[in-house]
Amino acid sequence: MTPQSDFMVLGIIIPEREADLRRLLESMNDAPGQVNPNNALLPFGQFETVHVARFVILKDNSPDDVRIFGLPRRDYPLYLAFLGNVDGDADAFLEDVARRASPGLRSIFSCCKGLTSETDLVDWMKRNSRFPAAAYTNWLGRTVTRIREDAALREALEKHVQANAFALAGLPPKEVHAALRRFVDAERTAGRLALSPESPTPLNWRIDTCSV
Prior knowledge:
The chain has helices at residues 18-27, 90-100, 102-109, 121-127, 144-163, 165-169, 173-189, 203-211; strands at residues 4-12, 29-31, 34-35, 50-58, 79-87. By secondary structure, it is an alpha+beta fold. The two termini are 16 Å apart.
C-alpha cells in the first residue's frame, strides 16, 4: 500500500487583487465548479499522483455570529486555499507541481501577500502550509494509477460477462472464476489491461493507520 498525504497552502489575498484572482480561477474551468484537467495554469490531470486538488477562496460570511456569546466581532482576511490529497509525500508533490507548473502557480499566488517574482515558490508554499483539521481519503493506500487500472478491469470484465452470458451461465462458480482469470491474463498479455504491483507498505504508515 502506498501512503497518501493531505496538503493545504493558505495565502492571504491582497484585496486589490481579488477580482484578478477570481478571473484566473474561472479561466481554469470548463463550467462553474468543473475544472478543465488540462487547463493552462495548473493541469491537474497531468499529475499522476493527484487524487483530488482544488483552489477555493475562503470568506467568513458570519462575523457577527460570535456576538451571541458576548464576543466582539472579528474580521478575518480573505484567504486562498490550495488543498488536496496525493500519493506519497505532500512536500514532494509541492516541489513537483512548482517545477512543472511554476508560471501558472505564480500567476495565482501573486494575488496573495508575500509572493513576488523574487520569492522561492516552493519555500513560500511550505511556509504557508497548514495541517487540515479534517480530510477525506476515498481509497486508502491505493494509488491513482491502481484505482484507474481497477476501474478498467471492472469495465472489461462486465463487458466480457455480458458478451458471454449464455456460455458462462451453465458453469459452476469455480469454472466461471477460472474462465474470467484466463480472460484477464489474455488481456494483460495483449497489453489491453494493466495491473501494477502494490508497493510495500512503509512500516511507520502501517502502524499509524492501524492505530487510527
